[in-house]
């Protein structure tokens, strides 16, 4: 099991620790470093900055939002950064949800998310292969565009720049069972939002047809500390925000996922409290047991025991959100 460093997206401003953490991760032998985006900082710019200050570590978008860019624009970002980094890019993509897609990007959330994802991936694959003009007879991403409101002058094109690699690894952030199953067919890997090494059966059917070499790369908060309850507080705060705030009462993919993992009643309670404006109560209502299962928190000995569970399962890459170099070093030592 390889280790990766997940830096996430910026808060109020750039985090001055991120570059030092990325360099330390590379020095310690971590395989990859990942950036993200929500509705603030973007994934590609921060990753390019890290690429310029490292030499070996692979560079992942975890995740870049599909609604933020047309598939050809994403492919342009990918081939450009892959060239500049010497072939180190891992392209992680996700649909996000209706609240972000419609509220931030001003676009309709696709009525058929699986179809929209397939078209998006197909377009990127065509760009990177560069074996002809890109053409997609699609419902969501048609190329060339032939809509009634167009000029009819659109021309199928292939990229001017020759991609460094036609096979840039493409991973998808999928949550629903059908979406995960499709991911095993059209992508090179999967970026789970929550992963419990104690509940791998939740995903068994969806992953049944995963081909050899398929990447499974979940993210997990990791911190070496004496007080487990205190160390879990950032995990619970994250869960409270995602389960309560990243969606509406009638449609929240993150709450649905927590429910499928055996915490249905707790997920709905967290969601209700958050939507009522009782955010601190929502965070406290996140079960410690769930937060603990999906993270690596506590003294070194405890983390060693729990890391063994992650290594025993199908995870190929563990992407850790670690706040300090000491935690990065401990995990590297334990995973060696």
From TrEMBL:
Keywords: Oxidoreductase. InterPro entries: F420-G6PD/mer, F420_OxRdatse_Rv3520c_pred, Luciferase-like_dom, Luciferase-like_sf. Residues 17-315 form the Luciferase-like domain. It comes from the Bacteria. GO terms for molecular function: oxidoreductase activity, acting on paired donors, with incorporation or reduction of molecular oxygen. NCBIfam families: F420_Rv3520c (TIGR03559). This is LLM class F420-dependent oxidoreductase. It comes from Streptomyces lydicus.
């Amino acid at each position: 099991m390889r280790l990766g460093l997940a830096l996430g997206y910026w808060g109020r401003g750039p985090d001055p620790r991120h570059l030092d953490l990325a360099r330390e991760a590379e020095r310690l032998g971590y395989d990859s470093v990942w950036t993200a985006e929500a509705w603030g900082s973007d994934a590609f710019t921060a990753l390019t900055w890290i690429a310029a200050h490292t030499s070996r570590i692979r560079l992942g978008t975890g995740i870049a939002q599909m609604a933020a860019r047309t598939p050809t624009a994403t492919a342009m970002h990918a081939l450009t950064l892959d060239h500049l980094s010497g072939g180190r890019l891992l392209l992680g993509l996700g649909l996000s949800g209706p609240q972000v897609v419609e509220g931030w990007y001003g676009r309709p959330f696709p009525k058929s998310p699986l179809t929209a994802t397939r078209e998006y991936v197909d377009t990127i694959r065509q760009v990177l292969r560069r074996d002809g003009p890109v053409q997609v007879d699609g419902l969501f991403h048609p190329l060339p565009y032939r809509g009634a409101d167009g000029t009819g002058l659109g021309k199928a094109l292939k990229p001017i720049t020759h991609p460094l690699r036609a096979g840039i690894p493409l991973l998808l952030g999928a949550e629903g069972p059908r979406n995960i199953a499709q991911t095993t067919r059209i992508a090179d890997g999967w970026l789970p939002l929550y992963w419990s090494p104690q509940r791998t059966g939740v995903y068994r059917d969806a992953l049944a047809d995963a081909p050899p070499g398929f990447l499974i790369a979940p993210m997990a908060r990791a911190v070496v500390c004496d007080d487990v309850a205190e160390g879990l507080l950032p995990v619970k705060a994250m869960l409270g925000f995602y389960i309560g705030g990243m969606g509406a009462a009638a449609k929240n993919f993150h709450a649905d996922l927590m429910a499928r993992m055996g915490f249905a009643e707790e997920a709905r309670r967290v969601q209700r409290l958050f939507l009522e404006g009782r955010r601190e109560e929502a965070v406290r209502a996140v079960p410690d047991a769930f937060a603990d299962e999906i993270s690596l928190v506590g003294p070194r000995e405890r983390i060693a025991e729990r890391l063994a569970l992650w290594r025993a399962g199908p995870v190929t890459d563990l992407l850790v959100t670690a706040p300090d170099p000491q935690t990065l070093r401990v995990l590297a030592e334990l995973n060696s």
